[in-house]
Amino acid sequence: MSLLPFDDRDGWIWLNGEMLPWKEAKTHVLTNALHYGNAVFEGERAYNGKIFKSKEHSERLIRSAKILNMKIPFSAKQICQAKEELRLKNNLKNCYIRTLAFLRADKMGLDSDGIRTDMMIAAWEWPSYFSEEKREKGLNIRTEKYWRKPAPNTAPTASKAAGLYMVNTLVKTAATKAGFDDALMLDYKGQVAELSSANIFMVKNNKIYTPIPDCFLNGITRLTIIDIAKEKGYEVEETIILPEDLHNADEIFATGTAAEIAAIGKIDEHKYQVGSITRELRESYENLVRYN
Ligand SMILES: Cc1ncc(COP(=O)(O)O)c(C=O)c1O
């Protein structure tokens, strides 16, 4: 991956309906989102020149904004068009696309009523979040001991809100510094929730289990994998998973736009094989995104 900082690259960025040279896409230091975290975003991927589940991502962005009382002045259809125009303008076939909507600097203070929303889209080449080798061997994960996913009435957990990622950033940074690939996060009740930016699945006796997304992101990849697995005849159960339930799993894997489908090889001292169901679902996902 290039080490160029993200504000010093070439290309085009879409900002509020306009295509701007990458380095000119700027915002003011008094932007509300910088002070109070009022921003929502999406991460998506295009494969072979087609953005995967673009409509679903645009709709989720609008839903996330609504939860924060932010009004995005574009429809899902317009957002999809803008993403596609930007992808073409940057001449990208396989890329990651980041959309962000954030409250402007219209006024200072916590009453956000009436503050306008800015929206930007950027795209760049970004291979899978975890290297091919890591995904093949299985990720090395540690359970986060301190930070938890918050209760739905203590944070807007149904929104893909930037503010929620403060804790995810702490957890991921600490895990990688300690030599792990990522952290497993528990929720406020001590139940298994997700990794710092991916959902989690467990396989036991050919049945697939995944936690109920009641206080963390219901990933679009997660929903895709549930559909694929059911189509293949697997039983999938969304259920409460306790950390100790993972100890006897046959296979564990993570799903997300950035991570795609990544096998987990180890959680704390427990080792897992990269099993046949993980491989089968990964292959189906790769075929779906590349040839849809
Ligand atoms: C915290 C978190 N959980 C799960 C996911 C997976 O979501 P998706 O499959 O929609 O990319 C992401 C990625 O966006 C995430 O940031």
Task: Describe the structure in your own words.
The protein has 292 residues and is α+β, with helices and mostly antiparallel strands. The protein folds into two domains: 113 residues, 2-Layer Sandwich (D-amino Acid Aminotransferase, Chain A, domain 1), CATH 3.30.470; 160 residues, D-amino Acid Aminotransferase, subunit A, domain 2 (D-amino Acid Aminotransferase, Chain A, domain 2, Alpha-Beta Barrel). The chain is 27% helix and 30% strand. It is built from seven helices and 15 strands. The strands form two sheets. Strands 7, 8, 9, 10, 11, 12, 13, 14 and 15 form a nine-stranded mixed beta sheet that branches. The longest helix has 16 residues. The chain is globular. The chain starts with 11 loop residues before the first strand and ends with a helix. The mean pLDDT is 96. Bound molecules: pyridoxal-5'-phosphate (PLP). The site of pyridoxal-5'-phosphate has 14 residues, from helix 6 and strand 13. Pyridoxal-5'-phosphate binds next to helix 6 and strand 13.
